């Protein structure tokens, strides 16, 4: 029954209350009681709705994520960001969430704002101490800072200077300007870098008699300087084997001594398969850098043929691959050459 109907009935009863009999009075009080109960139910419903409010949700973990990814995670949970920017200790942190409030796992109402502290990279006002760090890491860090800030305050002077040292090759030994120097404008960094101990001796490993894959794996472990050549298989030989090396196994040589290796051809090849020698001249570096030779097969699979530290020069590796494969040569995770297998 609607509330207007109830009021009309009560008013009618009040207007005619005089002369009503006892049953009419009972009817009046019954209607009044129904009205009070109805109003109580409505008030209780409104009160409970106000108490329930928004639905609750779980705060996700966004620390360590990039800002765009963090915003998507919050959107899924119906939460909204309140962003604060702060400098950090590394330029690589730029755009990364450093802190959040409330913490991950907290249960809050949907629509709540979450405070995100976002790194705006490193604020450089003094030259830091680069001594003892790897030159390749520092070079990458400086390039990243320039790309992210657009401000080349610190640049690396090339070519670098090198010196023999017990420190691992690539270690920065001296720097100019010195650490702590105030940066008032664009500055050029000069480094003296270790190229490793002078005349370090190594023992040439036994490579003769190994299959080509086994020889490549041993070369990668020992880091010897190598150069391959091919010759036709001879009667009584097993194909794709190292049949000759110079210097011989067990001889002590300096670390920059080249070991010449001869590999024979396979006994037979499958249809649409090629066995050949990959050769490419890599620019020389004062110390070895990571070099990778990979093959992209016609099926789309990518395999690595060899991964080795190589100082530069003529880089040669025998390979057996399907026609229409692609050989990809990289140094320091950067592709420098590719060739189709035809």
Describe the structure.
- With 342 residues, the protein is α+β, with helices and mostly antiparallel strands.
- It folds into four domains: 50 residues; 64 residues, Trypsin Inhibitor V, Chain A, CATH 3.30.10.20; 60 residues, no CATH class; 140 residues, Trypsin Inhibitor V, Chain A.
- Strands 6, 7, 8 and 9 form a four-stranded mixed sheet that branches. The chain has a four-stranded antiparallel sheet with strand order 17-16-19-20.
- α1 runs antiparallel to α2.
- The radius of gyration is 39 Å and the shape is elongated.
- The termini are far apart.
Number of domains: 4
Structure annotation, total helices: 5
Percent of residues in beta strands: 25-35%
Order of SSEs, N→C? HHEHEEEEHEEEEEHEEEEEEEEEE
Radius of gyration: 39 Å
Structural category: alpha+beta
Unreliable stretches? none
Q: How would a textbook summarize the main sheet?
A: 4 strands, mixed
- Count of beta strands: 20
CATH architecture of the largest domain: 2-Layer Sandwich
Q: Tell me the quaternary state.
A: single chain
CATH class group of the largest domain: Alpha Beta
- Average pLDDT metric: 85
Overall shape: elongated
Q: Percent of residues in helical segments?
A: 10-25%
Distance between the termini: 90 Å
CATH topology of the largest domain: Trypsin Inhibitor V, Chain A
How do the helices and strands line up, and which of them pair or pack?
Blueprint: H1 3-15, H2 22-52, E1 56-58, H3 67-76, E2 80-86, E3 97-101, E4 107-109, E5 113-119, H4 135-149, E6 154-156, E7 161-163, E8 172-176, E9 187-194, E10 201-203, H5 212-222, E11 225-231, E12 242-246, E13 252-254, E14 258-264, E15 273-282, E16 289-296, E17 302-310, E18 313-322, E19 326-331, E20 334-340
Parallel strand pairs: 2-5, 6-9, 7-9, 11-14
Antiparallel strand pairs: 1-4, 3-5, 8-9, 10-13, 12-14, 15-18, 16-17, 16-19, 19-20
Helix pairs in contact: 1-2
């Amino acid at each position: 029954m609607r509330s207007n109907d109830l009021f009309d009935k009560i008013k009618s009863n009040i207007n005619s209350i005089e002369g009503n009999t006892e049953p009419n009075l009972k009817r009046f009080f019954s209607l009044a009681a129904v009205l009070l109960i109805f109003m109580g139910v409505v008030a209780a419903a409104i009160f409970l709705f106000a108490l329930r409010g928004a639905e609750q949700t779980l705060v996700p973990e966004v620390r360590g994520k990039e800002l765009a990814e963090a915003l998507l995670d919050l959107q899924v949970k119906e939460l909204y960001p309140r962003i604060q920017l702060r400098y950090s200790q590394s330029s690589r942190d730029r755009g990364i969430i450093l802190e959040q409030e409330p913490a991950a796992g907290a249960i809050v109402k949907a629509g709540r704002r979450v405070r995100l502290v976002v790194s705006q990279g490193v604020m450089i006002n003094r030259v830091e101490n680069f001594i003892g760090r790897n030159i390749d890491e520092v070079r990458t860090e400086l390039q990243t800072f320039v790309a992210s800030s657009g401000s080349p305050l610190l640049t690396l002077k090339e070519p670098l200077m090198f010196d023999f040292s017990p420190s691992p090759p690539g270690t920065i030994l001296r720097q100019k300007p010195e650490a702590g120097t105030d940066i008032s404008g664009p500055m050029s960094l000069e480094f003296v870098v270790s190229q490793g101990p002078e005349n370090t001796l190594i023992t040439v490993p036994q490579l003769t008699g190994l299959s080509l894959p086994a020889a490549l794996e041993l070369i990668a472990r020992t880091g010897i300087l190598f150069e391959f050549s091919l010759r036709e298989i001879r009667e009584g030989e097993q194909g794709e084997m190292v049949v000759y090396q110079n210097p011989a196994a067990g001889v002590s040589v300096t670390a920059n001594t080249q070991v010449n290796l001869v590999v024979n051809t396979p006994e037979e090849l499958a249809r649409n398969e090629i066995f050949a020698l990959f050769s490419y001249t890599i620019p020389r570096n004062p110390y070895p850098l990571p070099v990778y030779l990979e093959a992209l097969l016609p099926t789309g699979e990518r395999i690595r043929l060899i991964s080795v530290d190589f100082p530069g020069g003529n880089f040669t590796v025998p390979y057996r691959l399907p026609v229409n494969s692609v050989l990809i040569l990289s140094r320091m995770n950067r592709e420098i050459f590719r060739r189709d297998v035809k």
